[in-house]
């Protein structure tokens, strides 16, 4: 899928064996995350396989990859592009699998981190739009400027949507800062000041302005951040309007003045309009700046809000144009992590990356395989690891056949595993021979078609006889799943080797 040179996994053999079970240790996942951050392509491949799972481990693996893709986790230079391409390759596999009713690819058929990463790399405008529609179907907007029209969720020059913005900021509440739902400054029909209406209602509560209040406001074609707070030095109520472009229109400023006056900002000098003019390299990025600065204010409540805003503006304006453009891309991606209707914010045990230097970690190639008589010694390559795991499955499969009522199914599984073993051995020998394997080659088509036949057979067995009880079906599917993972790993190894062959061919031709 993405490997253009084979590199060792950071896992020892016991941790590697865990990957084909339901019990993956926290240490193993943490090692994979740290290794992926450093650019280990095998670890990225493994995380993509795990990310397809719908359980806690799958969700954490997906988030590790998304955080690297979005820049939330700083990794090796270019890691986002590697993950983009890997996601796209996986998406194409999912499209093929969907035709066969394969349920293991569900995350790529619905809004998810995997689909978002894949969509960002789709070359087809039609495909991007179809994927984008899955994310945007439930979004609401405050103005016509928020509509997607011909753009999609990956456009880096569109106005952020109301729901996107609120999803990104709604969890920034704390004991010192309150985040309000984004609203329009005026009603569309009668031009009544919506902000004044909301403040009038809030002022009836006994705890109004016990904490800083932040309001993302849509002025009709532009997001700004309005804030109210009590000055710690003199106790006066003060306010600000952060605007990432040039000065606002006078009628817009008047509405803010009116709302601030209603809230107790009685002196014009206590309402500060900040016109930052920061969008040259962040086109239509007003919503991006509102979200980022809401985050800055919520994490630095001990500072005067105006100091926080001005410090950010000074720092940002000191960046070169390239860094500002990267900020635009990464911030939009990071915001979208909160729009994905899945589990990430509810993960019970977040991954903590190991801070131990790589030289002190136990790498796969540095450990010896247990001398169990039924296990073949591996050749240390990722493909060799796959072949060893298939062999292990075959040995264990003889015991499966003894289970009452499952013999016919397990006999088919065992035969499929043996076919997979022969194919894996043949492919491994081909790789060791030093020969190239480009996608147009007949040998590539042989391996590709053979793996697809294995998928078909496994999916047919996975469908199960409807006469089986639900418990029996679950038991059978539990036995099938390791082979599905191994067949997918074989296909990924084929794509990896083919991609490397194409790269080598281009280098020689050049």
From TrEMBL:
Q: Where is this region: Disordered?
A: 354-375
Residues in SseL-like C-terminal domain copies: 152-334
- Keyword Mitochondrion assigned to the entry: answer is no
| Residue span, ElaD/SseL-like N-terminal domain | 27-123
Query: GO MF annotations for this entry?
Result: cysteine-type peptidase activity
Record bears the keyword Protease: yes
**GO BP, one annotated term:** proteolysis
Which SUPFAM superfamilies does the UniProt entry name for this protein? Cysteine proteinases
Q: What subcellular compartments does it reside in?
A: Host cytoplasm; Secreted
Q: What is its main location?
A: host cell
Q: What's a single GO CC term here? A: extracellular region
The UniProt family comment states: Belongs to the peptidase C79 family.
Please give the name of this protein.
Deubiquitinase SseL
What is the native source organism of this protein?
Answer: Lonsdalea iberica
């Amino acid at each position: 899928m993405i490997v253009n040179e084979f590199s060792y996994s950071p896992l020892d053999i016991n941790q590697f064996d865990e990957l084909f079970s339901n019990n993956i240790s926290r240490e193993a996942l943490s090692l994979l995350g740290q290794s992926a951050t450093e650019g280990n392509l095998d670890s990225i491949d493994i995380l993509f396989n795990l990310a397809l799972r719908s359980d806690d481990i799958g969700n954490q693996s997906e988030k590790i990859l998304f955080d690297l893709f979005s820049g939330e986790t700083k990794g090796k230079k270019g890691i986002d592009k590697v993950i983009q391409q890997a996601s796209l390759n996986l998406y194409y596999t999912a499209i093929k699998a969907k035709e066969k009713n394969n349920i293991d690819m569900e995350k790529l058929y619905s809004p998810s981190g995997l689909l978002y990463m894949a969509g960002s790399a789709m070359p087809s405008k039609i495909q991007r739009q179809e994927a984008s529609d899955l994310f945007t179907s439930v979004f609401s907007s405050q103005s016509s400027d928020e509509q997607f029209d011909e753009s999609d969720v990956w456009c880096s020059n569109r106005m952020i949507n109301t729901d996107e913005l609120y999803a990104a900021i709604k969890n920034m509440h704390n004991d010192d800062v309150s985040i309000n739902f984004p609203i329009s400054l005026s009603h569309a029909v009668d031009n009544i000041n919506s902000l004044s209406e909301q403040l009038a209602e809030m002022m009836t509560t006994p705890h109004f302005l016990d904490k800083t209040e932040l309001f993302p406001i849509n002025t009709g074609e532009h997001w700004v951040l309005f804030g109210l707070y009590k000055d710690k030095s003199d106790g006066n109520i003060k306010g600000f309007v952060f605007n990432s472009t040039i000065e606002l229109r006078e009628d817009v400023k008047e509405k803010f003045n009116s709302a601030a006056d209603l809230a107790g900002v009685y002196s014009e000098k206590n309402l500060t309009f900040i016109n930052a003019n920061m969008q040259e390299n962040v086109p239509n990025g007003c919503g991006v700046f509102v979200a980022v600065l809401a985050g800055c204010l919520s994490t630095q409540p001990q500072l005067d809000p105006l100091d926080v805003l001005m410090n950010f503006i000074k720092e940002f304006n000191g960046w070169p144009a390239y860094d500002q453009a990267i900020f635009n891309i990464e911030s939009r991606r990071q915001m979208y992590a909160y729009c994905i209707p899945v589990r990430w914010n509810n993960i019970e045990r977040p991954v903590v990356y190991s801070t131990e230097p790589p030289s002190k970690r136990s790498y796969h190639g540095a450990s010896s395989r247990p001398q169990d008589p039924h296990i073949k010694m591996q050749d240390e390559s990722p493909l060799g690891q796959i072949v060893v795991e298939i062999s292990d499955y075959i040995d264990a499969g003889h015991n499966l056949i003894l289970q009452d009522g499952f013999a016919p199914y397990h006999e088919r599984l065992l035969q499929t595993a043996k076919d997979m073993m022969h194919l894996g051995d043949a492919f491994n020998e081909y790789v060791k021979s030093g020969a190239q394997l480009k996608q147009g080659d007949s040998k590539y088509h042989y391996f590709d078609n053979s793996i697809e036949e294995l998928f078909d057979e496994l999916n047919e067995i996975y469908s199960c006889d409807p006469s089986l009880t639900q418990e029996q079906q679950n038991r059978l599917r539990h036995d099938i799943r390791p082979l599905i993972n191994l067949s997918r790993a074989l296909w990924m190894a084929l794509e990896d080797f083919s991609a490397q062959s194409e790269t080598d061919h281009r280098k020689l031709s050049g």
